[in-house]
Model the fold of this input.
Amino acid sequence: MEYRKLQTEEIDRQLFEKFERYQKVTQCWRKIDGKWIVKDVPFIDQWNEEDYNQLIKCLKNTLQTNGILYGAFSDDILKGFVSVENGFIGKNQEYFDLSSIHVSEDMRGNGIGKKLFKMAAQWARTHGAKKLYISAHSAVESQAFYKAMGCIEALEYNQKHVEKEPCDCQLEYVL
Done:
């Protein structure tokens, strides 16, 4: 597996041609009356062309605003990526936003996400952040990954993220 920074000119639909976002979700975490519980919420999460177009726009913006985008490649095929926005958020200006982390379905469970997460954390740390903020998919499997990485429920919720994805779990990772 080759891990490297991606450049704006690389971000196009062809980059994601063999990337499989597919995730069969059966259970998700939900906060009800102040307590976290697992609920049956079955659905298939798979990006369509509109989703990829939005992703490409967002990732290009990340790079154009001096954020970072790392990719994991197997035989020159993208198998995972992580992005971090440059700029502090939160009332104490201590968070950097980990805006995306995804591993292609065919490569999950091989440590790619862990490596990408650590690269993102290192980049944020060297740019002065004290914490990563993560608005994370609430699927049980996704949350297990974040917990294994050492993430906890965010002490401060970012309202923009809550409004955009009300079912996400708002997490932080202390750098």
Remarks:
- Helices lie at 49-64, 112-126, 140-149, 159-164.
